[in-house]
Design brief:
Rossmann fold; binds guanosine-5'-diphosphate; alpha/beta; 7-stranded mixed β-sheet; two-stranded antiparallel ribbon; binds magnesium ion; 7% strand; single chain; 696 residues
């Protein structure tokens, strides 16, 4: 009897390799280990026909030949080693009919090694339910191979597979893509140094070493120009390879695969039909977003009011119980309100991430990514940008960090740059207080003006993010191609534990990251507001008494405090910028708040609280205090024009030191955070200026 044919079963995890293996080999299996490592080796004997036997190897699941794990490297080492006794006469790539696109990547790579390669499309029993039809003749032609449509569950297609294996010599060994088109110069060079060798194989050997961080620099630098062979460059070429392969696969499947979602009958498809519908998908997403924002706004207000009043009474109690002095003042006017200013964000952040993580857990978020990819591409973004953009509604810091899973550098950079335009929770208290102050009661179609204004501000933020992304995609000269496939998980009920962990993590990160800065700034502000240079500040009481001899003690104190503040360090700073900001409708006190906001937006309300509590009694809520602020002519400082101008300023300005720090870290340069700082602030100024000039 002749030597058994070596058959290697390859494929992504869970495509049914082991099921095919079992179907082929039955009970004649042997399970061992690959020498030296703990990866399981399964082999078996298959009777192909009366005279031919196959020696079948069930290889570990792998997504591609650009391996990064031990399991995957077993596969590559076998395919690259013609001398191995297991080297396949024929490779059988098993795919899942539902995930053909992703599964075919590996097929093209294996085939390009010049090994006779057969394609198994498994799980054919699912096709009807999923509304999938295949044009096998066309696919065989396009992929230049033989295809066995198999259902191991229904034991169909296996005999045909065996016949194809026997006839493996008739399989074409031509490559699916020409690897040198990825980078002509690089591969020309490689070819010169290693003539008469398969370029793709050489390429795999090189990248394999890169992936396992054992690139022999000397060997490669001998072989090729060291610069072009640097690991990061190779990684880039590897990505280009993947893009090329997916372009090829896409083209093939466009003709050979048809998914009629309307004909599918399974529950998941029924859901998908609506949730990723070209029209209803967006409507539903929009409604969900709106519900989330309205809920955040109304639900958070209850714990927030409680936090607000708790910290106010804590300050009150402390100032009564502790001996009067600088330390008590620092504690009650600086530290306690500063802490309050951090804690007050917790309800909003917690609610937001509660919703986001529920959307993620149920599998809906992947549909949103899919839905958005179509649209976001037009703006130079990526479907995956939707996660940072939405997370940005809590805080730009985790959002910028969340861009890490966008593979394409240009799209990632653009996402990082525009994310701060989305309305983060630190802007929410600014908006909330200004909306309460200047937007009138009343409603339109059952939605309050106040709620509508808030939604408008969110939309303006998203809109500007998209516009900026579009402009950046047209102007940034960065070469990076990308290919994107969404993995759509099945729908499932959210796991409470996972949701809880996300909410806890995000809240904790916020408190830890932004909290320190808020607290530090609050204390700094208190110091700047409590001290000042020269006799205007230090002899304020005498000066005020001289100017207003008729005042009683209480009024005198208030006047004195106001006078002191005006001549404190912070007052001087605020006044210095007053000429620049008065065309926007702001006075020097708002100027102070703006200055401190450049460190962190959320300080705005706290600053005003500090400023006003220094000059008036502490029981006044900040809102009433702001409402009673008047201009020189007696009209309220916060009116529709100045309020909206201020809100728009906050919508666009880059006022967050922590975000700048994160962007620096993620882009590894000061260039991009500076672009953000100056670009966004200039834009904010211009928009606020025009708004005030038009409305006032
Ligand atoms: P492997 O990871 O590639 O070895 O895949 P397995 O053989 O372990 O199969 C993965 C999953 O797919 C298992 O739950 C199998 O029951 C299922 N499966 C395998 N073949 C078929 C098939 O033809 N039809 C269906 N519906 N499920 C299958
Ligand atoms: Mg298996």
């Amino acid at each position: 009897m002749s030597k058994a044919l070596n058959i290697a079963l390859l494929g992504n995890p869970n495509t049914g390799k082991t099921s095919v293996f079992n179907a082929l080999t039955g009970l004649s299996q042997k399970v061992g280990n690959y020498p030296g490592i703990t990866v399981e080796k399964k082999e078996g004997i298959c009777k192909l026909d009366r005279t031919t036997k196959g020696h079948v190897l069930d290889l570990p699941g792998t997504y591609s030949l650009n391996a990064s794990s031990m399991d995957e490297s077993v596969v590559i080492e076998l395919l690259l080693n013609r001398n191995s006794k297991d080297f396949p006469d024929v490779a059988v790539v098993v795919t899942d009919v539902e995930n053909l696109k992703r599964n075919l990547l590996l097929f093209t790579q294996v085939k390009d090694l010049g090994i006779p390669t057969l394609l198994v499309i498994n799980m054919a029993d699912q096709m009807k339910r999923k509304g999938i039809t295949l044009d096998i003749a066309l696919l065989e032609e396009a992929l230049d191979t033989k295809i066995a449509v198999v259902s191991t569950r229904e034991k169909k297609g296996l005999e045909e597979l065996k016949k194809m294996i026997i006839d493996y010599r008739q399989l074409s060994t031509a490559a699916t893509i020409s690897i040198n088109t990825i980078d002509e110069a690089y591969f020309q060079n490689l070819e010169k140094i290693f003539p008469n060798q398969s370029l793709y194989k050489l390429w795999l050997v090189i990248t394999q070493d890169v992936n396992f961080a054992k690139l022999d620099r000397k060997r490669v630098s001998d072989a090729t120009d060291f610069k072009t062979a640097s690991p990061s460059n190779l990684k880039r070429l590897q990505q280009k390879e993947t893009v090329k392969r997916y372009q090829f696969i896409n083209q093939v499947l466009k003709q050979g695969l048809n998914i009629d979602r309307a004909a599918a009958t399974d529950l998941r498809s029924r859901f998908d039909r609506v949730l990723i519908h070209k029209f209803w998908g967006y409507v539903i997403f929009f409604v969900i977003l709106m519900t989330i924002f309205q809920s955040i706004f109304s639900w958070s207000s209850i714990p927030q009011d409680f936090i607000d009043s708790s910290f106010a009474s804590l300050s009150q109690i402390l100032s009564e119980k502790l001996p009067a002095g600088v330390f008590t003042d620092l504690l009650t006017q600086g530290i306690v309100p500063g802490l309050g200013g951090i804690v007050i964000f917790i309800p909003q952040i917690a609610f937001l991430f509660l919703f986001i993580s529920i959307l993620e857990e149920t599998g809906y978020m992947s549909r949103v990514v899919f839905l958005m990819d179509r649209g976001l591409r037009r703006f130079g973004l990526n479907g995956k940008s939707v996660i940072p953009l939405i997370s940005g509604t809590a805080c730009a810091i985790p959002a910028v960090m969340a861009t890490r899973n966008i593979e394409n550098w240009k799209e990632r950079l653009i996402t990082i740059l525009v994310t701060p335009f989305t309305t983060c929770s630190a802007r929410l208290p600014v908006y909330a207080i200004l909306i309460a102050l200047v937007i009138p009661e009343g409603s339109l179609l059952g939605l309050s003006y106040k709620g509508l204004m808030l939604m408008f501000l969110y939309l303006v933020g998203f809109g500007m993010a998209l516009l900026a992304a579009w402009i950046l995609s047209k102007t940034l000269d960065i070469q990076a191609k990308s290919y994107f496939i969404v993995e759509m998980p099945n729908y499932k009920l959210p796991l409470l534990k996972n949701v809880g962990i996300t909410v806890w993590e995000k809240t904790r990160t916020f408190v830890a990251e932004a909290g320190k800065i808020i607290l530090a700034i609050s204390i700094l502000l208190w110091i700047m507001a409590s001290y000042g240079p020269g006799k205007d500040f230090n002899q304020a009481e005498q000066i005020v008494q001289q100017d207003y001899p008729e005042l009683n003690d209480t009024d005198l104190e208030i006047k004195t405090n106001a006078y002191k503040l005006e001549h404190s360090y912070i007052g001087i700073l605020g006044k210095t910028i007053e000429p620049v900001i008065s065309p926007l409708g702001y006075d020097w006190k708002i100027g102070i708040a703006l200055i401190s906001s450049f460190a962190a937006r959320e300080v705005f309300v706290g600053t005003l609280a500090t400023i006003y509590s220094v000059e008036s009694d502490s029981e006044d809520t900040i809102k009433n205090r702001m409402a009673s602020e008047v201009r020189k002519d007696g009209s309220p400082l916060f009116n529709l024009a100045s309020g909206i101008s201020l809100m728009l300023f906050y919508a666009f300005a880059m006022q967050c030191m922590s975000t700048l720090a994160v962007v620096r870290k993620e882009t590894n340069s000061w260039k991009w955070p500076m672009v953000q700082l100056f670009g966004m602030t200039l834009l904010a100024y211009l928009v606020a200026f025009s708004t005030y000039q038009i409305l006032a």
